[in-house]
Amino acid sequence: METTPRASFNDLPAEIVAIIVQDAAKPTFTQDEEYELMNLYSTARELCLVSRAFRHIALPIMLHTVLLDSRNMPAFLHALHMQNEYAHTYPALRFEYTPYIRNIWFGERCGGRPSDAHVYSRFTSEPVSDLELIAPVLLSASSLAIEFWCLDLLEYCVELAWGRMDDNIDRGCLPLPWNIKTLTLSRITCDSWDMTRLASGSAFLASITHLIAIPPDERDISSHILFRTMCGVGCQSYAAPLWMEYVPWGSFERLERVSLVFPQVKLPFDIHESSMELKLHAELLTLPGSRLRGRRVPAEVQGSKDVEEGFFFSLKDVDAEVSDEDFISLNDVHVVVSDHPVHFCTESTCLSCLHPDWQKVWASGLQAEGRWVL
C-alpha cells in the first residue's frame, strides 16, 4: 500500500512559512477558556525553541501585547535578565524586547512585584535590578494598564527615564523618554496622585491622551446600581465615580478621551437579590477630555430630556442651571456595551474585582480606540 508523503516546511516558500508561524504564535485573547487554564503564550514559546529563525518571527508577535501578573512576572523578569546576559556573552541570541511591545498590562494580583535589589551579572561587574530592566519595557508601550496602587512603580520608571535625559538641553524640545499615550488604571481610589509632585510625573500625565478606568471600585458599582434602581433613571444616566473628584485633571494637558466602565443595570432590577459578585454586561462610557480639564467634576451624566439624542453634565451645584457649555452631543459621547457579561463585585472582600475577564477586555482591543471586544 502506498503511503502519503508527509508535508514539510522545506517544501514551502519562506514567505508562506513565515505567515504560518506568525498565525500560530499570535495569542488569542478572546478564547472562551479561563486564563488560569491555559498559557496564552505557550505556542509562541514552543516555536522559539524550534530554531533561531522561528524565534525571530514568533517573539515580535508574542511581545505585541504582554500580560504581566504574579503567574508570569518571574519568568518575564528572568527573560529580561537573560537578554542582558546575552548582550555580553552571546550577542547573536540577544533579542531587544522594547521595539516590539505595544500594549502591556501590569498587575499584582497575588504579588510578583519587581524587586529594586540589584542582581550582579556573572560576566560583568554591572549591577542590574529588576526595576531597571522593567522600566524601559513599561515605558516603550503605547498603551499601559496598571493597578492604581502600583503608580509608585510607574512613578519610579518615569523618574528614572526622566533623570537620564540631558540636563544641559531644554527638555521641552526633546522627545519624551516614553511612548505611553493610553493609560488604563484598574481600581482607582480617592487617594492623591503623588506623581504630580515631580516634574517627571507632571510631564508624564501631560502626555496622556486617553485615560481608561477598569474595573470600577466596589463602592462606585454599588452607587451606580443604587442610582439606577432607587432613582428610577433611564438607561442613559450614569453616576460619576467618587474618585473623579481627586484626579488632577488640570495635569492632563493633552487629554482627548476619558473612558469609564459601568455595570449594565436594566430596570426592573431587584437589588435585594443581587450578591456581592455580579456577572453583568458592561457599558463603556467615553467622554471628551476637554470637558473635564479645568472644570468641576459632574455628579451625573444624564440623557437629556430637552434636546433630542443628547447628553449633558448635571453639575454638583444642584441649583445651577444647565448651560449650553454643559451639554454634550452624542457626537462627543460614546456608549458601547460588551457582547458578554463581565465580573463585577460590590464588596471590598470580593477578589473578582481583579477577575481575568478584565484582562480579556483590555487585551482584546479596549486600549486601542475605546472599542469593546469580548
Automatic annotation (TrEMBL):
It comes from the Eukaryota. It comes from Suillus fuscotomentosus. This is F-box domain-containing protein.
